[in-house]
Amino acid sequence: MWIYLAVVAVILAALWVRKRYSYWKERDIPYSEPSFPAGNIRGMGRTEHFSTLMQRCYKDLKGKGPIGGMFFFTNPVALAMDLDLIKTVLVKDFQYFHDRSVYYNEKDDPLSAHLFTMEGTKWRNLRAKLTPTFTSGKMKMMYPTIIAVAEEFLELMKTDAFKNNEIEMKEILARFTTDVIGNCAFGLECNSLLDPEAEFRRMGRKIFSVPNGRLLKIFIAQQFRSVARTLRITLTDKEVSKFFIGAVKDTVKYREESKIERNDFMSLLMKLKNAEPLEDGNPHNVDPMTVEEIAAQAFVFFLAGFETSSTAMSYCLYELAQNIDLQNKARKCVADAIKKHGSMTYEAMQDMPYIDQCINESLRKYPPVSNLTRTVSKDYKLPNSKVVLQQGSTIIVPVYAIQHDPEYYPDPERYDPDRFAPDQVGNRNPYTFLPFGEGPRICIGLRFGMMQARVGLAYLLKDFRFTLSNRTPVPLKISPRSPIFTSEGGLWLKVEPL
């Protein structure tokens, strides 16, 4: 009897899987052939990074229609292939695609409920509250804090460069950005430049370390979000959560009791906590935010700000170390701006066009976020097509694949900052370059991230020459386990003081 029931259960399960895997075929949409149980993501996190898996599907499906089909385990996922469709998803028909398809659990894991993950009306209200914290005026206000950390960074680099011929740039740049973001988002001296094992730096490393058990947990929670919330699954490490919520609570309490105001994100977030207007003469009726809510926003500023900027800068230096002529051109751009403005002023930092080109080419070749995901909020019929994307389904914009497509970027593996010269940018579809996303959900911290990266690179290039180390492979080996696009084994360069 039990054997009979087991056989029936296996047969029914097999039929269900076959039915699931016929989803795209039934809709007459080209798709990548899946294999059970992983679908099209076999090897992800173990042998291959998510970006290159999506790139393979993109190459397989390109030219066959505006979307292609694939499967995450048994869940059908649409891959946006056409640039006009990508514009439609991210901007034109944003009301159908406003959520990111990223798991969060506001009740049990308050740090996960931040601007990047929030959905629907909650996201829209939160975005409206936070947008004033990232105006150019606010960036200029925080600039002296960044410069102060950069000066400390410069002294550390001089000491390290005289002591060691080779420096692991990814780690030391992460310490620089950790201190910048720690100062600006939490108003705290993180001291990770002086102490590599400082608490903020240790927590930063812990956020991006993904043990095997946690990787599986992330995949399951991501694919079955409602079930995961019902089961009260949390993804933020408990020690990390306790540390960041505690840091925010202590900072808020100290500042409110001592009546301290600083030019940083934390002061702006505290105004939101107390429902105060962020702009003079521009009051807005908003509900006050809880300490946990502002802790979540400070957490995501820290998370996105320290890792993506340090990664972009390290890749940029890695490429410039291989192209000394380009490095000299970038160095001259920095020197010209300082000469023109007298010192490393805010205006000088904004007047470094070739540095921007170098950063953008680094972001093209090594986008920190290699794919954009969106949930279909209600049934959506593709323009000029009979295809309907069903409510609740997921669509992916394969950023890495598009930015490595030779149709848009000839010889895509070659590092060429001139791709981002004004005339080149003007002649290229803007949806071929999406490292920050686009539309209403474009990265809110774009200005801050670029400012931090410009300052870091300018300080390094004006005083040091970089060449390749034997310890860094060419090409780089990308870590399959990292949620962002990062190299395995660090990024070592020879550093010579000028």
Structural commentary:
With 498 residues, this protein is of the alpha+beta class. The strands form 3 sheets. A 4-stranded mixed beta sheet has the order 1-2-7-4. Strands 3-9-8 form a 3-stranded antiparallel beta sheet. Helix 13 crosses helix 14 and helix 13 packs parallel to helix 19. It is globular and about 80 Å long. The termini are far apart.
Give a quick summary of the entry.
The protein is α+β, with helices and mostly antiparallel strands. It has 19 helices and nine strands. A four-stranded mixed β-sheet has the order 1-2-7-4. A three-stranded antiparallel β-sheet has the order 3-9-8. It has a two-stranded antiparallel sheet with strand order 5-6.
The strands making up the biggest β-sheet line up spatially as 1-2-7-4
Record field, number of beta strands: 9
- Subunit organisation of the chains: single chain
* Content of β-strand: 5-15%
> What's the total helix number?
19
Spell out the helices and strands N to C.
Answer: HHHEEHHHEHHHHHHHHHHEEEEHHHEE
Low-confidence stretches: none
**Distance between the terminal alpha carbons, to the nearest Å?**
81 Å
> Which structural category fits the helices and strands?
alpha+beta
Strand count, sense and closure of the main sheet? 4 strands, mixed
From the spread of the alpha carbons, the general shape counts as globular
Radius of gyration equals 24 Å
> Share of helix among residues?
40-55%
Descriptive terms for the model:
single chain, globular, 51% helix, 498 residues, 19 helices, four-stranded mixed β-sheet
